[in-house]
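Sample intake sheet
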Amino acid sequence: MSSVDLAEMLTGDAADSELLRLVTCGSVDDGKSTLIGRLLYDSKQVMADQLEHVEETSERRGDGYVNLALLTDGLRAEREQGITIDVAYRSFVTPTRRFQLADAPGHVQYTRNMVTGASTADVAVVLVDARKGVIEQTRRHTFISATLGIPHIVFAVNKMDLVDFGEARFREIEVELRDLSERLGVRDEIAIPIAALPGENVVEPSERMPWWDGGTFLERLETIEIAGDRDASHRRFPVQWVVRPMSDEHHDYRGYAGQVAGGEWRAGDEVLVLPSGLRTTVASVETHDGPLDVAVQGQSVVVRLSDDVDVARGDMLCDPTDPPVSARELEATVCWMSERPVESGARLALKQTTRWSRAILDEVTSVLDVETFEQIPADGLGLNDLARVRLRLAGPLLVDPYSVNRQTGAFVLVDEATNETVAAGMVLAASA
């Protein structure tokens, strides 16, 4: 495929179509990178020079076939070892939808990378080896996907060619996955049988599995409804930047730039500015292309206010009748991402939306046992631990529970001495 062909696909309705963010995850060697490579290749998303490079690398490695996994395993170390280490991001488009894909590592030691890739996803694709069924990493990644509030999970039961495309084996795994999803409270899940290496039921229906009538893997991705996943009820707008051009032409212009974190924003809406408590109304909601009738969650815009009130970076605009909690204490789920362990009492910096605060790790309540999903008492955290904690804040943060809003309910913890991001967190509850 040439760059001209791809450019043609990106014009017209396809370029303006809805964006779906997905993350692929699963255990080592389940075939995540192969699936994505096959998806890109069969949907004609691969440039001719990319394919040529993959062919050359496959021959040099002695694979004996064109290893499409190399399309996503971008790091040299990944290609040499045949594993995914970092999160590889790819974008592609079909006639009905645009996709942004994060290919996350499968190794347990790279769980932190998987959390990073999944944090903004609309759909989690969890790979399952048809020979092995549901294993610890399946449970771990499904748990993380559910904890991160990813609305949709697609279980790609891969390597069906290695179990003779047997329906009975797939149905056994399907029952296990359904039970797992029910235990974790997954809102929308489906299992789909595929064989990524030969391309069975990925983009084109498989003649080897006539018993399956649930559509291909790509068809599922193209038809998942995501518009209803946005938080349309809680108007939230964290201020990222104060826009003041200071030119003769725009000397009195003042706007507030940021990304809509929740609700729908229109001119005329009443606004509460936090933490100051000042009230005003929205004069206009704008982009470079001019005023908008409405802005929704995920859009980057400039909000102008009717009154000249004091608003700064880190403040939040919200609905006066439905403000977030101005929190001094948080109960949260965290994934510890640092190789250096931590104990209760540690002092850290916390960033949530556009606001910072110093924080004390008051208590590690428990650490998750991924095998049993039981919470085990603990005094500290180690690399990749998934835990419940209590945090005490030096200054107030404007938060919602993560179950209500994935943006205002998320945060990261930073070691101020090294500037290392040491944990990602999701708010369970907050108190003033």
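Comment: The first helix runs from residue 3 to 9. Residues 1-12, 75-85 have pLDDT under 50 and may be disordered.
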